[in-house]
Recover the amino acids of this structure.
């Protein structure tokens, strides 16, 4: 069942979320983006209908094939907590951040990214701890403000600053141009 076969604001089943997320996982994750959790309202980054999706797509020049490009560059978005938390009190959210840190550490040790980006300042320390627990001590770590709650401009500014610094897979050129780059072909 596709996540798109439901009504907006209908909560996503975690198994559906994880199947959809996995379908966008690159073979080699060069940069891991870590969000807090999928929203409770039923939107999801990899469904192309969340606030984070819209602002990330804009940071990547708004291309229609944004998710395909994101994957091709070796970028992957996972969440610290694999259950929605945005409806909870700050203290309960923080408690769940700590509870899910070992799970994130296991996933990070499997992914072995070269860089990690926390998609919310409030999870930065927990994500840094998970990276350390995963034994990846030389991984670059960045944090950006969440792309909402009046922080959209700061989010765009930080993403513009860090995107050129992030390791990414080389995106192959379309076949049939005799190995020449588009610049040298004309």
């Amino acid at each position: 069942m596709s996540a798109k076969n439901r009504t907006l604001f209908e909560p996503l089943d975690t198994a559906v979320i994880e199947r959809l997320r996995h379908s966008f996982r690159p073979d080699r994750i060069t940069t891991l983006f870590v969000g807090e959790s999928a929203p409770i309202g039923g939107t999801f980054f990899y469904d192309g209908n969340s606030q984070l999706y819209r602002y990330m797509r804009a940071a990547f020049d708004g291309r229609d094939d944004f998710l395909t490009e994101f994957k091709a560059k070796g970028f992957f978005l996972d969440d610290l907590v694999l259950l929605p938390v945005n409806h909870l009190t700050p203290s309960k959210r923080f408690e769940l951040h700590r509870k899910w840190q070992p799970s994130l550490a296991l996933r990070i040790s499997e992914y072995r990214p070269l860089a990690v980006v926390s998609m919310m300042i409030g999870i930065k320390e927990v994500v840094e701890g998970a990276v350390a627990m995963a034994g990846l001590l030389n991984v670059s770590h960045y944090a950006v403000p969440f792309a909402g709650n009046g922080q959209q401009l700061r989010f765009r500014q930080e993403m513009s600053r860090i995107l050129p610094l992030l390791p990414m897979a080389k995106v192959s050129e379309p076949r049939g141009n005799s190995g020449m780059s588009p610049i040298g072909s004309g």
About this structure: The chain has one domain: 14-164. Strands lie at 31-35, 75-79, 115-118, 140-143. The chain is about 35% helix and 10% strand.
